[in-house]
Specification:
The complex is a heterotetramer, with two copies of chain A (about 80 residues) and two copies of chain B (about 140 residues). Chain A is α+β, with helices and mostly antiparallel strands. Chain A is globular. Chain A has a single domain, classed as Beta-grasp domain (Ubiquitin-like (UB roll)). Chain B has a four-stranded mixed sheet with strand order 1-4-6-2, sandwiched between helices. A four-stranded antiparallel sheet of chain B has the order 5-3-7-8, with no helix packed on it. By secondary structure, chain B is α+β, with helices and mostly antiparallel strands. Chain B is built from three helices and eight strands. The longest helix of chain B has 18 residues. Classes of the chains: A alpha+beta (about 80), B alpha+beta (about 140).
C-alpha cells in the first residue's frame, strides 16, 4: 500500500501527558505494537498501557503494519 | 432485541427502559434484571468528563450485548452509556437484560456491567475545586 | 429509605422507581440493581390470581427489606408485589436496592427476590381455557 | 384467657380442598401445630404443608395455645 502510514492515537491521561492526539509513522517492515510505541513516543514500554489495532484490543506483541490505526491508552474506567 | 448507545446528554433511566420494553412482544419475557450506575455526589467532585474512542466504543458495546445474548439464556439487551460532561446524580450507565429465567437475567446483567468497567474504551476524569484527576481503574465490586 | 407494598391493581415499574428515586438524596448512591418479574404470555394462561395472607404478607415484605439493609451494604429498598388478578405481560414483582457498591446492590436484590419466591406468603393460581391450577413451588433459578 | 379459642386459617389450594377458610378450636392444654392440624382437619400431617403461628412461620412441632392464630398453607409461590 504505497504511501500508507500507521495512524497512532492516544487517549485520556496518555493523550494529556504527551500533549497530542496522535502521530503518523511509517512501519518499514515488521513491527510490534510495543516497538511502534518506542518509535512514536520515545519511551520504553510502560506497564499499564493498553493497545488497540484497528479498534480491536490486542497484546503489545501484536504486529502492526502500514495502513493500521494503532491506539494506546490507559486502563479503561467505564461503567 | 438489542439496543446499545452512547449518550452525549443526560438521560433518565426509566423512560429509556419503558420505551425499550414497549417494543418487546408483551408476555415474551418473565424476568428483567437492570443496573443503573449514577455519579455520586461525594468527595467534592463537581463534574466528570467521560472520554471514549469514537467508533471503537460503540462497536464494543454492541459486541458485548451480542456476546451476552450468546453466552446467557437472555433474549433482549439494553445497554446505554454516557459520554461527555456528567454531573452528580446523573445516570452514567444502564445495563438491562430480559429473559425467561431470573438467574440468566441477573448473570448477564452483571457480566455486561463488569466487562464494561474494564474492557470497553471509556475513561473518567473528575473535576474538583482543588483540580482534576483521572479516575483509577476500578477494584472489583466497588461502584465507580 | 425502605418502601414495601402490595398492589391490588396493575402498576408500571418505571414510574414507581422514578418516584422512589426522586425522594432519595441526589448523588447519595452510585449503584441500583433492579429486578422486575412479569407474567409471561406462554402456555395459554389467560390470567393469574395472586392470593396472600393479609397482614402477614405485608409484614414479611417489610421485614425482608429491613433484613436486606442489615445484611448487605445497601441504603435503600423498593419492594412491590402484585396481589389479585394479573394478566399476561403485567408486572408481578419489583425488587430494587440502592447502594454505593454494585456488588452489594446486586446481591441484596437477588437475595430479596429468592426469599420472596419461597418464604413470603403468596400463592399463584393460573387460569387457562382448559381449567385452573395452583402453580407448583419454583425450582431455583427458573422465573415463575 | 377464658373463652379464647385457637383461630385456624387455611390458604390457597388447601383452603379450596377443605372447602373452608378456617376453624375455631379449643386447645385444652399443650398442643403442637401438627396435633392441631389432626384435630382440625382430621388427617395425618401432610409433607408439604407449612404453618404460621400469629403470622410468623414456625415448625410443625411448635406449641400453640388458646388465643393463637394458626395458619396452614402450601409452599409459597410468590415473586
Amino acid at each position: 500500500m504505497f504511501g500508507a502510514m500507521i495512524c497512532v492515537r492516544y487517549f485520556a491521561a496518555l493523550r494529556e501527558r504527551l500533549g497530542r492526539e496522535g502521530d503518523q509513522l511509517e512501519a518499514r517492515g515488521e513491527l510490534s505494537a510495543q516497538e511502534l510505541w518506542r518509535l512514536a513516543v520515545g519511551e520504553s514500554w510502560p506497564e499499564q498501557i493498553m493497545v488497540a489495532v484497528n479498534q480491536r484490543l490486542v497484546s503489545p506483541q501484536s504486529c502492526v503494519q502500514d495502513g493500521d490505526e494503532v491506539a494506546f491508552f490507559p486502563p479503561m474506567t467505564g461503567g | 432485541m438489542i439496543h446499545t448507545g452512547l449518550r452525549p446528554g443526560r438521560y433518565a433511566a426509566c423512560p429509556e427502559v419503558a420505551a425499550f420494553e414497549a417494543a418487546l412482544e408483551p408476555g415474551s419475557w418473565g424476568a428483567c434484571a437492570l443496573f443503573t450506575g449514577a455519579m455520586r455526589g461525594a468527595h467534592a467532585v463537581e463534574r466528570m468528563e467521560l472520554e471514549h474512542y469514537p467508533g471503537m466504543t460503540e462497536r464494543q458495546l454492541q459486541e458485548l450485548a451480542e456476546e451476552a445474548v450468546q453466552r446467557y439464556d437472555i433474549q433482549h439487551v439494553l445497554l446505554l452509556h454516557r459520554v461527555g460532561t456528567v454531573l452528580p446524580g446523573e445516570t452514567i450507565v444502564l445495563v438491562a437484560s430480559w429473559s425467561a429465567h431470573r438467574a440468566a437475567a441477573f448473570q448477564a446483567c452483571r457480566y455486561m456491567l463488569e466487562t464494561l468497567k474494564t474492557s470497553v474504551t471509556f475513561w473518567k476524569k473528575e473535576y474538583t475545586p482543588a483540580g482534576a484527576r483521572w479516575v483509577p481503574p476500578p477494584r472489583s465490586g466497588v461502584a465507580a
